């Protein structure tokens, strides 16, 4: 099985999640437009038939996708940004956000990388450019996270000037303690809320032993995107279809307004069902039981 860690190491690509607007602010019909899927979920199927996969995502009920793995050479899944944008439009889909590999930019090795991401994001009419992962060499100390926060701020300023917004997606390593704080707390406190938003991967927050609702209440309005990803009841190291696992989504979704969430993005990294049946099941549960 291809794990995310192995995939990133082998392909130099980076990560994933789901999107929706709180039901208290819009009707179900309207909120359904913001249910998205992180395409990393279908990373095994995309290389075989990327255009067919996008069509099946739309058939499953999704209205948004979140990309991953963009490069200037390979584009989006082998398509140039304009070609990918046309494909999405054909299926009445939007790509409101994308995961882009930021390690070379954060380390200062490639200052020009961000411009290529901004150009690609604008070509497909994205709103958010998401930092999906930090290499281990960038996160060994509190000082490292402070440097990351500085680099995020610089990138966010450039994104804002281009009409975009920068976001940060968590795993569980950000919650490692450094004295009386964590890497995640440093990122939250040392970035401007008007510049940097956060994509809360709910599975990883829970797996780190934390309460997502408490996190939202401590930092209200910072979490504009959520990755809705469930935890297998028997094995917490793997995912399952939304509503089938152990994450208390009903309590979490009851606090959507506190979080400030605008997009709910489904993600799943492993399957016991056919992947397309799985994503349809997760979409149905999310739409009918959580929104």
Characterization of the model:
α7 runs parallel beside α8. By secondary structure, this protein is an alpha/beta fold. The chain starts with a helix and ends with a helix. The N terminus is likely disordered. Helices cover 38% and strands 15% of the residues. It has one domain: TIM Barrel, CATH 3.20.20. The protein has 13 helices and twelve strands. The protein is globular, with a radius of gyration of 17 Å. Keywords: Isomerase. This is Sugar phosphate isomerase/epimerase. It holds the Pfam family AP_endonuc_2. GO terms for molecular function: isomerase activity.
Question: What are the SSEs and their pairings?
Answer:
Layout lengths: L3 H8 L16 H4 L3 E4 L11 H10 L4 E4 L13 H10 L3 E6 L3 H4 L6 H11 L4 E4 L10 H20 L3 E5 L7 E2 L2 E2 H7 L6 E6 H6 L4 H7 L6 E4 L1 E2 L7 E2 L8 H5 L2 H4 L3 E4 L8 H16 L1
Parallel strand pairs: 1-2, 1-12, 2-3, 3-4, 4-5, 5-8, 8-9, 9-12
Antiparallel strand pairs: 6-7, 10-11
Helix pairs in contact: 7-8
């Amino acid at each position: 099985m291809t794990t995310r860690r192995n995939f990133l190491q082998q392909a130099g690509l980076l990560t994933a999640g789901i999107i929706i607007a709180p039901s208290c602010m819009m009707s179900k019909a309207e909120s359904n437009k913001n249910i998205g899927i992180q395409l990393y979920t279908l990373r095994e199927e995309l290389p075989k038939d990327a255009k067919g996969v996008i069509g099946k995502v739309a058939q499953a009920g999704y209205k948004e996708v979140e990309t991953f793995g963009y490069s200037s050479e390979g584009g989006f899944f082998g398509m140039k940004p304009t070609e990918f944008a046309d494909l999405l439009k054909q299926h009445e889909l939007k790509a409101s956000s994308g995961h882009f590999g930021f390690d070379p930019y954060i380390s200062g090795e490639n200052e020009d990388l961000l411009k290529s991401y901004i150009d690609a994001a604008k070509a497909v009419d994205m709103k958010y450019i998401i930092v999906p992962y930090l290499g281990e060499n960038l996160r060994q100390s509190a000082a490292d996270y402070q440097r990351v926060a500085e680099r995020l701020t610089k990138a966010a300023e450039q994104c804002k000037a281009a009409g975009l917004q920068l976001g940060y997606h968590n795993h569980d390593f950000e919650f490692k303690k450094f004295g009386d704080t964590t890497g995640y707390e440093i990122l939250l406190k040392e970035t401007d809320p008007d510049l940097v938003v956060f994509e809360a991967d709910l599975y990883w927050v829970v797996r780190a032993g934390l309460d997502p609702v408490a996190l939202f209440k401590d930092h209200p309005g910072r979490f504009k995107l959520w990755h809705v990803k469930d935890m297998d009841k028997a094995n917490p190291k793997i995912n399952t279809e939304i509503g089938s696992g152990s994450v208390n989504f009903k309590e979490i979704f009851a606090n959507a307004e506190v979080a400030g969430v605008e997009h709910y993005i489904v993600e799943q990294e492993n399957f016991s069902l056919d992947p397309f049946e799985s994503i349809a099941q997760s979409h149905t549960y999310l739409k009918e039981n959580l929104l």
